[in-house]
Amino acid sequence: MLPREFLRENAARLLAEYPERYAGSGLERFVEVDRRRREAVTRLEEKRRRRNELTSVKGKPSPEALAEMKGLKEEIRGLEEQAEKDDAELAEVETRIPNAPHASVPRGKDENDNRVERTVGSPPRFDFEPKAHWDLGPALGILDFERGVKLAGARFTVLKGAGARLSRALSAFMLDLHTREHGYEEIFPPALTNAACLFGTTQLPKFEEDLFQTREGYYLISTAEVPLTNLHREETLPAAALPLAYTAGTSCFRAEAGAAGRDTRGMIRQHQFEKVEIVRIVRPEDSEAALERLTGHAEEVLRRLELPYRVVSLCTGDLGFGAAKTYDLEVWLPGQNAYREISSCSTFGDFQARRAQIRFRRAEGEKPEFVHTLNGSGLAIGRTLVAILENFQRADGTVAIPKALRAYFGTEEIRGS
Fold it and tell me: Does 344 qualify as catalytic in the annotation?
């Protein structure tokens, strides 16, 4: 979250420059409560000062002094209670105020104002009408949407045979690329996490409705970003340990509470999905370069798989709650005749680190500083599987396997079962 001093000094500027991000965010409430609290603290200090003056007078106090001291005692108690109440409200309001955008983030109201930075590869040309994956998968016998509904309900899919094998191959390919060539350390974290970790990476309290909670109070992870970033929660790291780079392939679980009616067909938006995540923890002066590097690592997966995509800078109105800057990678899906998000790569500055209390010390004896955190999908497995089916489909209904993936998958194509 943002420091209270920063909010106090910049609230008016943020509201004026970024109304699309801060109007209704709680920042207005912060200004009001902070002003009231500071006024209460000023009056409290004055009353305490007067009380000290009266009690420092030698000899027996006069009836008037006694009466004034009695009144001061009540006033001080009331002002202390008000200051404590305001402090608690400020602490709660602060958790709901989004991060400040980086200066390079494009201004805009919503996704229509996002900026395309570059397009890589050309959409394939077909001499037949390309199908969407929700038609291709069942025809090949590798995706079963009906049984997914029977087993668990809407937004669940059963992967069968070559479909399950393709998902497994993609995960292994991505993890090998990130660990062997990009320098990430592979982690296999728990699928459950506590509320403190979710607070640290900003899923709580704002996005609780999108989480699945157990009876014991734990939560299913919505992304491996949560455990990977929180590996160092409440730690002070030596400067020599930075940068840290972690990757994990996990199942992820999202209630998709705000997505009613969106992407109801196919595998684009599921309650359970597989994803390979990449996370970097760096010094503040290195975070801008680290975002470009992390984004490049996610892009390399798409390049190796020969999938056409574009890189999009999210505008201030579409930027995620905790992000200071985000690049979305959007892959071309011929069956939908559109680019769709397959990775979101973000730098958070010290926003997450403040919440999770992750610091580093440049040298012994120096004051600790907050690290900067970054993360991205490297990539979402289900959406990559969808992209392969749609981009590599053939007129006879078979699907070719990208060359880089064949050693992992075992064959060069998928044929109907």
Answer: yes
Reduce the DSSP state of residue 21 to 3 states and report it. helix
- For residue 326, give the nearest of 114, 108, 109 by alpha carbon: 114
CB atoms within 10 A of CB 70: 10
- Residue 332 is classified by DSSP as E
Segment 301-319 mean pLDDT: 98
Alpha-carbon distance of 101 to 18, in angstroms, equals: 9
Find, among 333, 324, 330, the residue nearest to 344 by Cα. Answer: 330
Mean pLDDT for all residues in the chain: 95
Q: Coil, strand, or helix at residue 120?
A: strand
Domains of the chain: 4-94 (1.10.287), 111-414 (3.30.930.10)
- How far is 201 from 326, CA to CA, in rounded Å? 15
Half-sphere exposure of residue 248: CA atoms within 13 angstroms, side-chain side: 21
- Contact predicate 399/388, CB 8 Å: yes
Q: Which of 287, 344, 346, 377 is catalytic?
A: 344
User: What tokens were used for 177?
Assistant: 């690329």
Band of the pLDDT at 260, cuts 50, 70, 90? low
- Give the residue from 214, 198, 333, 312 showing the smallest Cα distance to 265: 333
Cβ pair 416, 141 in contact under 8 A = yes
User: Minimal CA–CA distance to 171: which of 242, 257, 276?
Assistant: 276
Catalytic residue, chosen from 75, 256, 341, 369, is: 341
Annotated catalytic, 8? no
Of 256 and 164, the structure prediction assigns the larger pLDDT to 164
Distance of CA 87 to the CA centre of its chain: 27
- pLDDT 10s digits, 131-159: 999 999 999 999 999 999 999 999 999 99
361 carries an active-site annotation: no
Contact 185, 245 (CB under 8 A): yes
**Per-residue pLDDT tens digits for 190-227:** 999 999 999 999 999 989 999 999 999 999 999 999 99
Q: How far apart are CA 308 and CA 52, in angstroms?
A: 74
Name the amino acid, one letter, at 274. E
* Overall pTM > 0.90: yes
- Catalytic annotation, pick one of 29, 168, 269, 361: 269
Token pair for 236: 């002070």
Buried b (16+ CB within 10 A) or exposed e, 278-289: bbbbbeeebbbe
pLDDT of residue 350: 98
Q: Residue 329 pairs with which residues in a beta bridge? A: 311, 343
